[in-house]
Design a protein that fits this description.
Length: 334
C-alpha cells in the first residue's frame, strides 16, 4: 500500500558536533513532524566534501550526527534515517539537474559567496553547485516540506526553480517543496558574541554544542558580550543583549524570562546574574541530550543497523522517483 502522508525531508552536514542552532532550527522540528508525515532525515556527507575535503574524521562525524538525531528524539521506526552517499541515485539526479542550473544564478547564491570568502583557496565546482545537490536530495523523495533554519531559504527557492524547469522541459514529475518551521517564521539562533548565527563552521567559542560539558557551557555563556546596562527606562536593546534574551526564551522558564525583561525595562538588570541563570538553564537543557549522544555513540552496531535499514528504505523510495525521471527525460532506451 502506498503511504498517503505528505513527505518531509531534511539533512545536516557531518562537519562537527551539532549545536543549539541545529537543534532549534532543525532537529526539534524533525521530532515534531515524525508522527504526522512520511519523514526522511539524512546526514549530508557529500555536501560536507565541498568544504571539508579531509575525510579522516568523516566516519566519526557521520555517526555523531546519527546519534544526535536519535538523542534528540527521532524514532527510526517512524522516520527513515540514512546517510546521503548510501543513495547513489542522488548523484545521478544531481547530474541531470546540473543541466538545468545556470552559472549566473549559482554564483549569486548567498551561501556560495560566504563560502568563497571563508575558503578562498578551495572554490571548487561542487561548492558552486551545492544547491543543485541539495535540490536532488529533496526532489528524489518528492518531498513537500523541508524543515530547515532561515539560512536555507534561498536553497529552497532554487530547488523550486530547478523542479519547475524540469517539469516544463520534461513533464510534471516534481512537487514544489517549501521550507518549514513550526513557528511559521524560520528561526535563526544567534551566537553568543552577538555576531551572526551559531555555527559549527564559524565561531566555536560563541556556539553551544549539544556535546559541551557543563563547565564549558558555563564558561561560554559567562563570556558573552554585555555592557553596563540600560540607563533610561524602556530603552531599545543592543543586538548582543537581545540575543541573550532570545537564547533565554529557548531554555528558561517564562517566569525567568519575564523577570529579566522587567529588570531590563526598569534598568535594574544585572547581566552577571542573567548570564548565570542562562548558563544553568542551558546546562539543564543540554546535559541529558549530551548523555544520550555519548550512550548511543558507544553502541556502534546499533548505529550501523539504523544506517543500513535506513539506506534500504531510502533507496527503495528514491528508485521509484528515478524511474519517473528517466522516463520523462527519454533516457529509457529499451
Ligand atoms: P552550520 O551552519 O553550523 O554548519 P549546518 O549548515 O549543517 O550548520 O545546518 C544544519 C541545519 O541546522 C540547517 O537546517 C540549518 O538551517 C540549521 N541551523 C544551523 N545553524 C542554525 C542557527 N544558528 N539557527 C537556526 N538554524 C540553524
Ligand atoms: N545545506 C544544508 C545545510 O547546510 C544541508 C542539506 C543538504 C539539506 N541537503 C539538504 C537540508 C536537503 C535540507 C534538505 O544546512
Amino acid at each position: 500500500m502506498e503511504n498517503k502522508k505528505e513527505i518531509v525531508l531534511s539533512g545536516i552536514r557531518p562537519t562537527g558536533s551539532l549545536h543549539l542552532g541545529n537543534y532549534f532550527g532543525a532537529l526539534a522540528n524533525y521530532v515534531k513532524m515524525q508522527d504526522d508525515y512520511d519523514c526522511y532525515f539524512f546526514v549530508a556527507d557529500l555536501h560536507s566534501l565541498t568544504t571539508h575535503p579531509d575525510t579522516s574524521t568523516l566516519k566519526e562525524h557521520v555517526k555523531n550526527v546519527i546519534a544526535t538525531m536519535l538523542a534528540a528524539g527521532i524514532d527510526p521506526q517512524k522516520a527513515t534515517l540514512y546517510n546521503q552517499s548510501h543513495l547513489y541515485t542522488t548523484s545521478e539526479l544531481y547530474l541531470y539537474l546540473n543541466m538545468l542550473a545556470y552559472k549566473g544564478e549559482l554564483e549569486k547564491t548567498v551561501t556560495f559567496k560566504e563560502k568563497v570568502r571563508q575558503h578562498p583557496d578551495n572554490v571548487n565546482a561542487g561548492l558552486l553547485t551545492y544547491p543543485v545537490l541539495q535540490a536532488a536530495d529533496i526532489l528524489i523523495h518528492l518531498a513537500k516540506y523541508v524543515p530547515v533554519g532561515k539560512d536555507q531559504e534561498q536553497h529552497l527557492e532554487m530547488t523550486r526553480n530547478f523542479a519547475n524547469r524540469f517539469n516544463h522541459r520534461y513533464g510534471e514529475v516534481f512537487p514544489e517543496p517549501v521550507a518549514f518551521n513550526f513557528n511559521h517564521n524560520l528561526v535563526k539562533i544567534p551566537s553568543l558574541d552577538g555576531e551572526g548565527k551559531m555555527s559549527k563552521s564559524v565561531n566555536e567559542n560563541a556556539t553551544i554544542y549539544l556535546t559541551d560539558e557543563d563547565e564549558v557551557i558555563r564558561k561560554k555563556v559567562m563570556k558573552a558580550k554585555t555592557d553596563s546596562g540600560p540607563t533610561a527606562p524602556d530603552s531599545a536593546m543592543p543586538d548582543y543583549i537581545e540575543n541573550l534574551y532570545a537564547l533565554m526564551r529557548l531554555v528558561s522558564t517564562s517566569d525567568t524570562v519575564s523577570h529579566f525583561e522587567k529588570a531590563y525595562k526598569n534598568c535594574t538588570v544585572r547581566y552577571g546574574d542573567l548570564k548565570k541563570q542562562l548558563a544553568e538553564d542551558m546546562v539543564a537543557f543540554v546535559a541529558p541530550i549530551r548523555r544520550r549522544i555519548y550512550e548511543i555513540m558507544e553502541d556502534e552496531p546499533y548505529i550501523n543497523k539504523i544506517m543500513t535499514e535506513g539506506a534500504e528504505k531510502a533507496n527503495e523510495h528514491a528508485n521509484k522517483t528515478m524511474v519517473l525521471v528517466r522516463n520523462a527525460m527519454g533516457l529509457n532506451y529499451f
